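Review session, final week

We close the course with one last complete record, chosen because it touches almost every idea we covered. It is Diguanylate cyclase/phosphodiesterase, a protein from Paractinoplanes durhamensis with 774 residues. Go through it on your own first, then we will talk.
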Amino acid sequence: MQHEAAPPSHRAAVFLWAGVLFAALLLPFAFIASTLNGLAVVMLGSALLVMASIAAGIRLHRPPFARAWWLIFTSVGLALAGNLIFATILSGTVARNAAAINIIYGITYPILCAGVALLPNHGRPRAARIGLTESAVIAACVAVIWWMGFVDPALVDPGLLRTHAYLLVEPFLDLVLFGLGVRLMLLSDARSLSYWMVSASCVARLVADTGYLTVGSKAGYPTPLSIAGWLICNGLIAVAALHPSMTRTVPLPADGTVGRRGAGPVSVGTVVATPVLAGAFLLHEGLADDLSSVDVVVPMIATAVTSALIVERMRQLNRFAGRRAAELETALLSEAELRKELLFRATHDMLTGLPGRSTLHDRLAACLATGPGGTLMLLDLDDFKEVNDRFGQTVGDDLLIEAATRLRGLIDDGLVARLHSDEFAVLLEGVALTDAWATTERVLTAMRRPLTVQGHELFAQVSIGLCDLADDESAADVIRDAYLALHAAKEAGRNQMVLFDEELRAKRLQAAQTVERLRDAITRDEFLVFYQPLIRLTDERITGVEALIRWQPPGEKMVPPDRFIGISEDSGLIVPIGAWVLRESCRAVAGWHRRHGTVVSVNVSPRQLREPDFGMMVLDALRTSGLPPQALILEITEGVLVNSGTVTEQAISHLSMLRGHGIKVAIDDFGTGYSSLAYLRDLPIDNVKIDRSFMPAPGAPDPAARTLVKAIIDLAAGLRLGTIAEGVETAEQVALLQELGCERAQGFFYSRPVPEPDAARLILESADAAEQRA
C-alpha cells in the first residue's frame, strides 16, 4: 500500500525544523576550540539563529497569539545588540565592567519573562493567572536550595556578598524565569513539545548563569558549563519556535489547577524537602561555626513567602469550591423543581390544576383495596361544545377553570379530578351513599348558577353519573359503571344525576348492538381513513401524515372516533379495524412516498399489541403496499410501555422487532398519563408527541409552559428522540416550536384531518412550493 506524499509546505517545515535542530546541537561544541573573540561570534550566531527561527516559525505556523513569541524575539534581539556592543566598543573593558554588563543583560529578562508568561494563554486575560501560585511555590523552594547550595559557598562564606552582589541580578531573574518555565510545563500536555523545550531552556539558562556566578566570576571569564548552557538555551528556543506544536492552545482548567500531571506532587515534594534541607544546611553551618545572619534570614524569608503562597492557593481553591458548591446546589434545586413540575404535569391537568385520570385511578384502586367504601361521581359539562364553537377555545378554557374552581369549593373532603375535556370526577372515600346523594344535589344546584367568563355570563350545568363502590369490583369496573350512569343522565335530558343500578346494565346490551354494527361496518366497508399533515417546522413542508379512522354509516352522520374506538377496544374489534387502517394507510401513502418522500403515522392500540401476530401483520402490510419500513411510524400511548406484566413484555417484543426492520415508534400524548420517564431511555421508541395540553394557551404568554416544552424538547434531543407537537393552532405556537428546536408539528393551524384526495392535493402543493423556494 502506497502512502500519499506530504504537502510541499509540510516537507519544508520538517526539513527546516531538522536543520535548526542539527545546528542547535552543534553550537554547544563550537566554543570548545574558540577564543574569546571566537566565542563572541558563536554567541552572535546563536542569537541570530534564535531570531531567524522565531520569525520563520511565526510565518510558517501562524500561531493564533504570536505576541509572546515576538517578545522572546525582542529579548534575544536586545541581548544580541549587547553582544555586538561588548564585542566591538567594549571589547577591551569587558572584565572591568562586569557589573555594568550584568545590569545591561538583566534588562532583557523582564521582556523574556513576559513572553514566557504569555506563551500558553493565547490572548485570554483570565488565563494569565492560572498556575502562577503553584509555580511560585516551587520556584521559592528551589530558590532556598539554590541559595544554600551555590550562593552561600560562592559569595556569603568568602565574604564577597557586598562587593559582588551584582552577580545575583541575572540568577535572581533566572529564578523568576524558572518559575514561569515550571508553570508552562505544568500547563502543557505531552503533545506540547514546543512548550516543554521552552521550559527546558529556562532551566538551562538558570544552570548557565549559576555556573558563571560560582566559577566564572572568580576566573574572570565564562566557563565551558556556562557557555554550553547559554548555547543550549538558545538552541532549545530556536527548535521550539519551529516545531508545529508552537501553535497549540493550552486547555485552561476550570478550577484553576494546572496540568493532568498536576502541581500537587511536585509542590508537596518541594515544600517538604525544602525545610529539611534548610535545617540540614543551618545545622552544618552551625557545627562549622560559619553561621551568619544571612544564612538564617534568607531561608526564613523564602519559607515565609512559600507559606503565604500556599495559604493563597488554599484560599483560591476554597473560593472555587464554594462557587462549584453553589452551582451544584442551584443545579440540584433546578433539577428537583423540574422533576416536581414534570411529576405535577404528568399527574395533573395543567388548565385547571386538578389531579388527572391516573391519580384518580390510583386513589380509586387504593380505596377499593382497603375497603372503606365510598362513591364515585363523574360529571360532564352540558353543551360545552357549543361554548367553544360560539366563543372560541380561550373562553371555553376559562369556563373550565371557573367550573373547576366552583366544583373544588363544593367538595369538603374528597378528590376532585379532571378526566378529559369537560369531564370531571369526584371520589368520596368512606362516604355513605345517602351523604353522597346530598353532595350531588348540592353540586347540581351550585353549577346551575351562571359563571362570569371574560365578560360573558355562561352556564356550566352538569350531568352526573353516580356509582357506589363495591369491594368485589375493580377500579376500571367502577369507572365504567359511573360512565354508564353519566351517559344515562345525558340521555335523560342532562342537568341531572343518575345512580348506576341494575337497569343500566341492560343498556350494556345496547353497547353490544354497537359492537354488532361495528362488525357489519367492517364487512360493508363503512370505515374511512382521513389524513392530517405532519409539518417539518424548519421549512414548513408536509413530510408525513397521521392516519385517523372515521366511521361513515350509509345514510347517517359520520361517527366520531371517540364514539366507537372505546367500544372497539373493549370488544376486541380494534384488532381487525386497526389492521384495516394500517393496510389502507400504507396503500395510500406508498405512492406519496415514492413521489414526495411522505411518511405515515398510524395509531396502535394496546389491544392490538397483545396479538401474537401483530408484528407479522405490520410487515405483511408493508410488503403488500410497497411502502418502505422507514416510512411508517407506529403511535402508542404511554400506558402500553409502563404497565406491568406479560402484556407489556409482549408489546416491547413486537416494537423491538419492528424497529429492527426500520419502523419508527412514537409516544402519543407524551407526559399526560404517567410520571415515570425511565421508559424514554430503556424502551424501544424513536419519537415523542408533545401533548396539546403542554402548549401555551393562544394569545397569552405562559413562561411556565414555554419552560416545560423546552425541557421536553431538550430531554428528547439528549436521548436522540424526535419531537412532534400536536394540537398546534396559532402562529405564535409555531414560532415558539421553531425557536425551541421542535422537529415536526400538526394541528388545525396547518390542516384538519382530510380525506385521501384532499391529502394528496395538500402534499403535492407543499412539494411544489418547496421546489419553487429552492
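Two points worth writing down before the exam:
The chain has three domains: 13-262, 358-500, 521-773.
Residues 1-8, 31-36 have pLDDT under 50 and may be disordered.
Good luck, everyone.
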